[in-house]
Design the sequence.
């Protein structure tokens, strides 16, 4: 058995960036392999962005197109913020993976193919009439034939593993080969394998062996004559880690808890792609965070409302279908004017839709998906690490204004990862709140009462008096309340007043907002307006276009309700406004309605993020009246 | 009787009267509604529960009965239809020192909120749930409810309802509720005793309160609860005693392997054949058999505590109450693999 050496005898070439796509069966461990390649690339100092792309079924029939699970990673020595339009390298573990992923790679991409799986049966399951390795269908690609399964099995069987078990290590062969090709440090991977598989020595050794064999294959094969080096990116100094959006969001929730000095309560019901937040929060008992797995999303949000009434910082996390179930309770939260953060990790809809794919199609639901006049702040995260800050900000708004807040993320942000410079905790805001402790209303006879709807003059927030506080006992409910006293009131004039006050309270949040992120050529004719996870792709498109000398500006909206005050003026100062969204045109309609500007939608609902090329093409078209010949 | 909450043993609980528990809000039930007597029984019982007003939270869903919180001089939430047990779960978990009451109707807690009721009970969350059963939708003006008898003619069932009714106590026992009792709006003393027992029970306590809606379902329980009928129609459950009732205790309850609990003439059976009531039986099957007596509420009906057993109360596992602060955030963010860029 050969052992991997960290230096190679073959020449190496420096490249700025590369997009690698790994694809195999759902059971082949592609997500694990992709994440691990990402982790070692991060340790090598690269900037990176990932795009996990997996089916909703846990294990669709092996070898079929339906079961293909893919993972794309873009690594670079430059600052990047998108996972790459098309891949430069595809690792295909079987024919189905090759067939389903070929359209997602460049026409001259390198294909690393596990030839052992290209038997007649496998080809047939993938829907191939003839073997693409034998005909000319892969012309133009650089194909590297690798008998991954057999090489892995031969080596691993020596350790005493059964054939079936030995086969399962083949993803580590692929990882070893990639690490050799891109000069990643093998010890970083092996340390991780040792830790991850510590409980089963045979599996641990099998994986290390498969990794070594893959690495050695790269060194010896004549099919690859050169290794590549992606230099570390020029990141500002600091301590870094890799993080995905859902973990960052969970940590932001824990951070907000600590910063507020409160206990937190999460009511949640499992749903893809939001469950990982529940999992992550359930791990940290010392974090003053109680997680409650409710019987459904209605109980999840209503238990959170109850906890908020009792003085907890309350959260509920879900995805679109769960948001629909929470609708009535959100109306209650608006009426009760209690702090609450509602997190929606959006996925493809309607109905069960595309549970594991990304979409931004719940914006209208967040804005208007409740009965009655029930305005709520809506905040959207723009990149994985940003989910940390957004969670803190959402809590800050909820606590300061005593209101439910919707925080939007999506399946792409939730699952994809990037290097993150760990913030200095001393820079995080103080979220401490003061509960009411005393009566606040003096009656004509000099006696004092507690009025739960007597508002703060500046923020219009009402006092938060929690059970256990003597003298402040009060009853609140969803029936319209009299201004001030909070008593039941069916009075028409009062209802108008309360409706106005609830709207005004949310509108006033705009007074405290920083100006929106507005970059690029501010005097350009064309303005791109985005929100949420399209930020990275739009920013990359803007950068590329400007390098070419095409003028374009970029407005990113973190707060969608209320909109920052500058938005109207910015929109009006550009001749052409393009709004790329992963929906059928929701923000664009809002902007048209609100500002009477000709905001042009650029829409996609394909379960995947935009490519940079798609955004570029739209801008070229606006500039030249055509797509400017872009590919 | 099971051990009481620590709050009830504290010495510095101020003495209160019924009036201290009455809010300043005008009560808006129909004149003659059974809800009035349930409210006053509760307000009479509360001073005897050894708790403070500020530590008490009453949660209602939507319905006539669910208006309860507005009339109580405590903390209170009038929530949304059916969700009171879930709202109360959040309150109880956020602050385990509170006394939490849930009040709702048969529609509120068994129809739209049936799911939440089941889960609050099986989790054994510390709260007292009053299901005020008038066998009708009162607030929406008289449609049949999940406890209405089959064939009931209402606005939404002019040819008689097709649905089979649910028996609230059977449902609660099916969810393995640790405290299950029944009382009725015509007997304040009985209500007070049951409410006090329910409140003292650690965990979820479920009480069905038979209530007369004199507007939309008048006389629903008259054959049982009217003073003149009680002797022969109410089966009082007394811990440790053979179950007997009726004139001169001429009637009793025995367990029959084929028919569950059945009412017999005591003259026809020997003394030791009578079922001895034991609310602490771990297995809920005997209590369940008792809950099936009088399924249409027109036969002798057991009243009192069916079941009271000890089981761990949900949410008493410690969550750190003092947030350790910024250091915790820093440790969390630096956990796992990190690297330095200088
Ligand atoms: C989501 C929702 N659906 C329906 C209603 C209308 N509604 C209010 S109370 C009620 C039923 C009340 O019956 P019950 O719970 O038995 O209470 P009662 O009035 O009899 O005390 C209904 C259907 C509502 N308020 N909310
Ligand atoms: S409708 Fe029936 S239950 Fe409702 S208040 Fe009137 S009498 Fe009571
Ligand atoms: Mg009813």
Sequence:
């Amino acid at each position: 058995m050969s052992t991997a050496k960290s230096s190679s005898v073959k020449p190496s070439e420096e490249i700025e960036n590369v997009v690698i796509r790994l694809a195999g069966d759902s059971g082949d461990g592609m997500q694990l392999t992709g994440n691990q390649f990402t982790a070692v690339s991060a340790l090598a100092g690269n900037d990176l962005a990932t795009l996990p792309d997996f089916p909703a079924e846990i294990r669709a029939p092996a070898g079929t197109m339906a079961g293909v699970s893919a993972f794309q990673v873009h690594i670079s020595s430059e600052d990047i913020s998108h996972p790459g339009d098309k891949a430069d390298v595809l690792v295909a573990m079987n024919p189905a993976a090759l067939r389903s992923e070929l359209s997602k790679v460049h026409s001259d991409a390198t294909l690393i193919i596990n030839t052992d799986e290209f038997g007649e049966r496998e080809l047939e399951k993938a829907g191939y009439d003839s073997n693409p390795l034998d005909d000319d269908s892969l012309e133009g690609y650089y194909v590297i034939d690798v008998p991954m399964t057999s090489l892995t099995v031969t080596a691993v069987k020596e350790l005493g593993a059964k054939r079936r078990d030995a086969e399962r290590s083949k993803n580590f062969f692929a990882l070893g080969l990639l690490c050799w090709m891109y000069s990643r440090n093998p010890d970083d991977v092996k340390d991780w394998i040792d830790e991850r598989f510590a409980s089963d020595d045979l599996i641990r050794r099998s994986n290390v062996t498969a990794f070594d064999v893959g690495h050695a294959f790269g060194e010896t094969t004549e099919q690859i004559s050169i290794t590549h080096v992606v230099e570390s990116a020029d990141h500002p100094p600091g301590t870094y880690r890799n993080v995905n959006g859902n973990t960052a969001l969970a940590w932001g929730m824990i951070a907000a808890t600590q910063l507020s000095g409160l206990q937190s309560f999460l009511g949640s019901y499992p749903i893809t792609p939001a469950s990982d937040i529940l999992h992550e929060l359930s791990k940290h008992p010392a974090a003053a965070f109680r997680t409650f797995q409710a019987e459904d999303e209605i109980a999840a949000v209503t238990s959170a409302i109850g906890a908020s009434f009792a003085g907890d910082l309350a959260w509920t996390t879900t995805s679109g279908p769960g948001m629909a179930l929470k609708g009535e309770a959100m109306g209650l939260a608006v009426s009760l004017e209690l702090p609450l953060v509602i997190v929606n990790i959006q996925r493809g809809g309607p109905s069960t839709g595309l549970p594991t794919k990304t979409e931004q199609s719940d914006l209208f639901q967040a804005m208007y998906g409740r009965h009655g006049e029930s305005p709520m702040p809506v905040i959207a995260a723009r990149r994985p690490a940003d989910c940390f800050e957004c969670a803190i900000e959402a809590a800050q708004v909820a606590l300061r204004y005593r209101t439910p807040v919707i925080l939007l993320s999506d399946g792409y942000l939730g699952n994809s990862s990037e290097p993150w410079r760990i913030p200095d905790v001393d820079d995080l805001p103080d979220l401490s709140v003061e509960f009411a402790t005393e009566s606040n209303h003096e009656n004509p006879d000099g006696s004092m009462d507690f009025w739960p709807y007597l508002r703060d003059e500046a923020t219009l927030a009402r006092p938060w008096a929690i059970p256990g506080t003597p003298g402040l006992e009060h009853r609140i409910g969803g029936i319209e309340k009299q201004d001030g006293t909070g008593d039941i009131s069916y009075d028409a004039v009062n209802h108008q007043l309360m409706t106005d006050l609830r709207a005004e309270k949310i509108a006033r949040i705009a007074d405290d907002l920083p100006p929106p992120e507005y970059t690029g050529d501010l005097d350009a004719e064309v303005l791109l307006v985005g929100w949420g996870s399209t930020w990275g792709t739009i920013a990359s498109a803007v950068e590329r276009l400007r390098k070419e000398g095409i003028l374009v500006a970029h407005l990113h909206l973190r707060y969608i309700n209320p909109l920052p005050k500058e938005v109207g003026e910015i929109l009006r100062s550009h001749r052409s406004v393009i709004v790329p969204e992963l929906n059928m045109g929701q923000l664009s309609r809002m902007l048209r309605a609100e500002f009477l500007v000709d905001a042009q939608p650029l829409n996609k609902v394909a379960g995947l993020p935009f490519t940079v090329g798609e955004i570029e093409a739209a801008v070229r078209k606006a500039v030249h009246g055509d797509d400017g010949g872009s590919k | 009787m099971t051990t009481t909450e620590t709050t009830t043993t504290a010495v510095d609980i101020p003495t209160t009267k019924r009036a201290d528990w009455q809010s300043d809000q005008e009560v808006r039930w129909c004149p003659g509604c059974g809800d009035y007597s349930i409210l006053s029984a509760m307000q009479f019982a509360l001073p005897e529960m050894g708790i403070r007003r500020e530590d008490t939270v009453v949660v209602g869903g939507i319905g006539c009965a669910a208006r309860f919180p507005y009339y109580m001089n405590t903390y209170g939430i009038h929530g949304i239809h059916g969700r009171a047990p879930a709202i109360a779960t959040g309150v109880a978990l956020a602050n385990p020192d509170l006394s939490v009451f849930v009040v709702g109707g048969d529609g509120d807690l068994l129809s739209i909120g049936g799911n939440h009721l089941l889960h609050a009970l099986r989790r054994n969350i510390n709260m007292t749930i009053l299901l005020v059963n008038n066998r009708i939708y009162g607030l929406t003006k008289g449609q049949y409810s999940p406890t209405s008898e089959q064939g009931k003619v209402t606005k939404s069932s002019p040819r008689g309802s097709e649905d089979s009714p649910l028996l609230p106590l059977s449902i609660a026992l099916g969810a393995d509720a640790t405290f299950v009792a029944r009382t009725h709006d015509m007997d304040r003393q009985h209500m007070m005793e049951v409410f006090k027992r329910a409140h003292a029970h650690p965990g979820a306590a479920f009480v069905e309160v038979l209530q007369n809606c004199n507007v939309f379902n008048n006389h629903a329980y008259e054959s049982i609860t009217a003073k003149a009928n009680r002797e022969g129609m109410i089966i009082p459950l007394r811990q440790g005693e053979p179950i007997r009732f009726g004139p001169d205790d001429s009637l009793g309850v025995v367990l029959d392997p084929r028919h569950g609990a059945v009412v017999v003439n005591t003259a026809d059976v020997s003394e030791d054949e009578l079922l001895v009531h034991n609310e602490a039986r771990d297995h809920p099957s005997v209590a369940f058999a008792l809950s099936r007596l009088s399924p249409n509420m027109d036969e002798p009906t057991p009243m009192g505590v069916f079941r009271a057993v000890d089981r761990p109360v949900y949410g008493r596992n410690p969550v750190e109450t003092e947030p350790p602060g910024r250091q915790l955030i820093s440790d969390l963010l630096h956990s796992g693999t990190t690297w330095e860029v200088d």
